Structure formats: C-alpha cells, structure tokens
C-alpha cells in the first residue's frame, strides 16, 4: 500500500515510511544574537533551569536546540527572545553589518524587540490576542508602525503561504492544532525580524504541514534570517539545522 499509493498518501499529508525532507544548508553571516553565561532560575526554584550557556546565532543559519525534557530548551528560547530576564549572564542583539551590540534583549521596548526577534511559543494559543486570524497577523506590524493597508497585504500573503486563507475570518482559538502552529509562525514573521526563535515548531503537523514549515524556515534563512529552534523532531534537525546546541538535563 505504501508503495502503490505513496503519491495519494503524500498529497493527503500522511507520513509515509522512508520519506526524507531536505533543505539547503545555510551560509552563516554576521552574528545576530549572542548569549554569554546565560543562566536562569525560576523564582521559586531550588536549582538553575538553565546554567552558563554560550551561544552565537548568525544571519543565514539555523541552529537546533536539542536535549531531554527538563534540559532548558524552552527557557533558552525565551531568554534569547528577550521574554525572560536572565538570572545571570546576557542575551544580546548585534546589528549587522558592524556587529554593533544594541544591548540586552530583555531590556528592549516591545516595538523594538519585535523588529529584531520573532518568537513562536510551545503552545501557540498563548500568543493569540485577536478575534480573527487575519487581524492576529496584522497586529504585530501595526504595533511596529506599519500602514494598515501594508499590514493587510502582508497578512494575506502569509495566510496564502501557510494555507490559512480559508480561515482568515475564524477565531484563532477554533483552529486545529496544526493551523494554530502555522498561525503562530505567521505572526512572528509578520514584523520581518532578523531572527526567528521557535519552540517545537513542527508539533502536530502532518507531512504536508511539516514540509511547508521546512520550506518557509529554509526560505527565511536563505534570505539572511537567523533561525533558532528547540525540538525533539530529528527529521527537522537533519533537514534544516546547520549545527546543534545540545543541552544536558
């Protein structure tokens, strides 16, 4: 059946044994984000959730953050996205082409941060704010100062690219898990950030959704964007990552 009906199964988005997805490898450019001695302990914690991590993320490359549950993958993504204040160490943004460090990410105003880093949460519903899919995508650009007509055009293009056009008027919370994941990535891309940070980006995707996301992330990297993604998805690591940052439990 897998041999005879492979094309039909693939078109329906069903994973078929032996399928391998590939993306071209990136060519790293100027440093975009850097972490030095990055450490975080939760306020009520008795040990560090993440301890002493050094990481450079360059334009035009994709870095996979891997490791067992509890190793701090999500914490690292949140810190590098400026969404947590480190207990010790720094996470900073460097502006190309002069590698000028603009400062620690957690200190940046939201309007400045969204132009530099786009973050995709592990649970996509945690970042939805609006009552319609199209308006959800428009929110970031509008708050960053975009013209409303430009924001609408950008949202339309992203919805078409991520197969969300048919749910443009739907409430984000009524979407399927896979659709919510694609919407969360669209909202992160909408402000044209220099770096894209994702936590388990392929969770809940069928094969077609997985391939769409791989293509989108590959294109973002190919355009000079930096990609940092935390994942247990070995297929995504093999297909996309230029290198791997493995965290120990």
Q: What secondary-structure arrangement, pairings included, does this model have?
A:
Layout: H1 6-11, E1 31-40, E2 50-58, E3 62-66, H2 73-80, E4 88-95, E5 100-104, H3 110-116, E6 117-120, H4 133-143, H5 148-161, H6 177-189, E7 195-199, H7 207-222, E8 226-230, H8 234-240, E9 243-246
Parallel strand pairs: 3-8, 3-9, 6-7, 7-8
Antiparallel strand pairs: 1-2, 1-4, 4-5
Q: What characterizes the major β-sheet?
A: 5 strands, parallel
What's the CATH H-level superfamily name? P-loop containing nucleotide triphosphate hydrolases
Order of strands across the widest beta sheet?
6-7-8-3-9
The name CATH uses for the topology is: Rossmann fold
**What Rg is obtained from the alpha carbons, in whole angstroms?**
18 Å
Number of helices: 8
The poorly predicted ranges are none
């Amino acid at each position: 059946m897998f041999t005879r009906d492979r094309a039909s199964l693939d078109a329906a988005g069903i994973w078929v044994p032996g399928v391998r997805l590939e993306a071209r490898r990136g060519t790293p450019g100027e440093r975009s984000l850097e972490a030095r001695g990055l450490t975080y302990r939760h306020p009520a914690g008795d040990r560090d959730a993440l301890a002493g991590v050094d990481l450079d993320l360059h334009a035009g490359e994709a870095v996979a953050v891997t490791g067992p549950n509890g190793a701090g993958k999500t914490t690292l993504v949140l810190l590098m996205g400026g969404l947590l204040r480190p207990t010790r160490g720094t996470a900073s943004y460097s502006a190309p082409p002069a590698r000028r460090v603009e400062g620690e990410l957690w200190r940046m105003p939201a309007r400045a941060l969204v132009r530099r880093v786009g973050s995709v949460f592990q649970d996509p519903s945690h970042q939805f704010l609006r009552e319609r899919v199209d308006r959800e995508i428009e929110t970031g650009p509008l708050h960053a100062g975009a013209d409303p007509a430009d924001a609408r055009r950008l949202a339309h293009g992203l919805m078409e690219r991520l197969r969300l056009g048919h749910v443009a008027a739907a409430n984000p919370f009524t979407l399927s898990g896979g659709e919510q994941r694609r919407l969360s990535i669209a909202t992160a891309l909408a402000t044209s950030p220099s770096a894209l940070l994702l936590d388990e980006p392929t969770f809940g995707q069928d094969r077609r959704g997985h391939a769409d996301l791989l293509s989108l992330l590959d294109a973002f990297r190919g355009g000079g964007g930096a990609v940092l993604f935390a994942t247990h998805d070995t297929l995504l690591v093999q297909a996309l990552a230029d290198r791997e940052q493995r965290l120990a439990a």
